[in-house]
Specification:
This protein is an alpha/beta fold. The chain has 9 helices and 8 strands. The strands form 2 sheets. The protein has a 5-stranded parallel sheet with strand order 2-3-1-4-8, with helices on both faces. Helix 1 crosses helix 9. It is globular, with a radius of gyration of 17 Å.
């Protein structure tokens, strides 16, 4: 059966960290609209330049651009057994667009869909975001505070250069929260009503969240 996972939660709730772990274990592609958009920005495309003008203010990128990048990604061959969507959809409009994409890509297939909601206190998130570092080479994510890393240290996994994301400062982070609460949070009710939603306590340690996440997936498969 095709396994489709959707991870929803505020900025810094650990969606990317958990997706990285689950994607390795289940061998499912990690599809993260934030990274897909940052690739467009890095390539200097017209879509990237326009998306950046919204992202740098903590707002959602225009739906036309997001729909284009996500559809291009979901029709790739590596998605045929499933995928993990990290940070998509983020609005009612995007959820409707995704339903249409599901109709096209899942036509005549048996599919299991689960939405994991990463529930965590906002103040804890600001601290996680300002302490986040990402690796330029292997794209791993680290929390320099909990890992006791120095600011100029290299990536503990591959030795690559670590960098701070442009939107990981307190001012933009607070705007990203406003956007999340206004536009993304309503999706929790939508997916609860569809019966797809499972809630995770995302204030726990990375290890404990992962244990609960995989436990919930096992329960789903064997129920
Ligand atoms: P995106 O890149 O998706 O950012 P986000 O949703 O704001 O989420 P983050 O990546 O900030 O957090 P996360 O939940 O993945 O946490 P992480 O695991 O890294 O989007 C960026 C922007 O792109 C958006 O603002 C928007 O403008 C645009 N965009 C993206 N998708 C879009 C869409 N669909 N439509 C329109 N626009 C879109 O963890 C954070 C830190 O905490 C790390 O340092 C990590 O090491 C640490 N950490 C994680 N878990 C724990 C833990 N349990 N304990 C302690 N530390 C932890």
């Amino acid at each position: 059966m095709k396994q489709e996972f959707i991870f929803i939660g505020p900025p810094g709730s650990g969606k990317g960290t958990q997706t990285e772990l689950l994607s390795k274990e289940m061998r499912l592609p990690h599809i993260d609209t934030g990274s897909l958009l940052r690739e467009e920005i890095a390539a200097g495309t017209e879509d990237g330049i326009l998306a950046n003008s919204f992202m740098s203010k903590g707002q959602l990128a225009p739906i036309a651009i997001v729909s284009k990048v996500i559809k291009k990604r979901l029709i790739k061959d590596d998605c045929k057994y499933g995928f993990i969507l990290d940070g998509y959809p983020r609005s009612m409009e995007q959820a409707q667009a995704l339903d249409k994409i599901f109709e096209e890509i899942d036509f005549n297939q048996k599919v299991s869909r689960t939405v994991f909601y990463f529930n965590v206190d906002k103040e804890l998130l600001i601290e996680r975001l300002v302490n986040r570092r990402c690796c330029t080479d292997c794209h791993s994510i680290f929390n320099i505070k909990t890992m006791n890393l120095d600011d100029n240290e290299k990536c503990p996994k591959c030795g690559g250069k670590l960098f701070i994301r442009d939107d990981d400062n307190e001012v933009v982070a607070r705007k990203r929260f406003d956007t999340y609460f206004a536009q993304t949070e309503p999706l929790i009710e939508l997916y609860r009503k569809k019966g797809w939603l499972k809630e995770l306590d995302a204030s726990l340690s990375i290890h404990a969240i992962y244990a609960n996440l995989t436990g919930a997936i096992r329960e789903n498969v064997y129920s």
